[in-house]
Amino acid sequence: STQSVTVTVTGAAGQIGYATVFRAAAGALLGSGTPVRLRLLEIPEAARAAEGVAMELQDAAMPLLESVDVFDDPTAAFDGSEVGLLIGARPRSKGMERADLLAANAGIFSVQGQAINNGAAENFRAVVVGNPANTNALIAASHAPDVPAERFTALTRLDHHRAQAQLALACEVTVNDVDGVAIWGNHSASQFVDLSRATVKGNPAEEVLAERGLDRKWIDEFFIPKVANRGAEIIEVRGGSSVASAAHATLRHIRTWLRGTEEGRWTSMAVPSTGVHGVPQGVVSSFPVFCQDGDHRIVEPWEIDDFARERIERSLAELVEERQAVEQLGLL
Ligand code: NAX
Description:
By secondary structure, the protein is of the alpha/beta class. It has two domains: about 5-155, Rossmann fold, CATH 3.40.50; about 155-320, L-2-Hydroxyisocaproate Dehydrogenase, Chain A, domain 2 (Alpha-Beta Complex). It is about 45% helix and about 20% strand. The chain contains eleven helices and 14 strands. Strands 3-2-1-4-5-6 form a six-stranded parallel sheet, with helices on both faces. The chain has a three-stranded antiparallel sheet with strand order 7-10-11. α2 links the parallel β2 and β3 (about 65-70). The chain is globular. The termini are far apart. It binds ligand NAX. The site of ligand NAX has 29 residues, from α1. It comes from Kocuria subflava.
C-alpha cells in the first residue's frame, strides 16, 4: 500500500485552514497517490470549531483521508508530523502596535518550534503562512535546534502566483506562457517583484512589455505595487482577505518542495539565506529557488542591477528590523 503523509495544520478552524484541509484530503498536497493523516491544531477557544471541521471531513468520505485528529496542545499536534502547515497566527487587532504583534506571534511560534523539536518526524518540513510569516518561520526554527533550519520556510508563493497572473494579463497571454518571475524579501508590501529574468513565450518579459508601451516606470509604479498590495485590494473588493488563493499557494508550496521544480524553472519561497545575493545568512527571505529531492536551493546569484538591489535592500532592512525586535524580546 502507498505510504501516507502526516500533516499538522495549525489554525485549522480559520478561513485558510478550512480551505486547505479539504483540498489536502482530496489529493492537492502530494497527489492522488498519497493518503494523508491530518492533525488539526487550534487554540482551546477554537478547538470545538476544529472538531466541526473534522466532522465535515468525515462527512466528505474522502478516500485519501486516513485519519483526522483535533488538538489544542502543540506537542501532541506535532507528534510524528512530517509536514507542518503553520497557518494559525495572532492577527493585528485595532490599536495594536507592530511590536505587540511580533511579540504575540513570537510566543506562538516559539512554542510550536519546541513542539516540533520534541516530536516531529525526522523528515519534518514546514511552511509558515501566518503573518509576519518570514519572522515567524525564523522564530520556529530557532526553537527547534535539532531540526535543520532550512526545513522552516515561509509562504511567498501567493505573491509569485499574483506576479505570474498580472504579467500574463498585461501581455494578454495565459499564465502558461509566463515564466521566471521572482519574489525577493519579506512577505509584506516591501517585497520586490522581479521581472528581470521573466519571460513571456520565451522572450524577455521586459522587452515584451516595452513593445506594448509598458516601460520600467510602469513596472516600478504600477506592476510591483499591484502585486505587493494585492492582498489589500482583495480585502477591499471581496470584503474579506485572501483565502482560497492562499490555501492553493500553501498546497503548491509543499508540493513543489517535495516533488521538485521542473527542469530549469524556479519558484519563489522564503527560506533561510545561505548568505548569497547579499542577504545576511539566516534571514528568512524570499528568493527564487529550485526544488529537488525534498530540498530547496537558492538560484545562483545573477547580476542584480542598482534598481533591484535598492528594492531588495529595502525589504531586507524590514526583515532585519523584525529580527532585532524579536531578539530584544529575548524570543530568538
Ligand atoms: P483566521 O483568523 O480566519 O484563522 C486563523 C486561525 O488561527 C484562527 O482559527 C485562530 O484560532 C487560529 N490560531 C491562532 N493562534 C493559534 C495557535 N497558537 N495555534 C493554533 N491555531 C491558532 O485567519 P486566516 O484568514 O485563515 O489567515 C491565517 C494567517 O495567514 C493570517 O496570519 C494571515 O495574515 C496570513 N496570510 C498569509 C499569507 C501569505 O501569503 N503568507 C496570505 C494570506 C493570509 O493573509
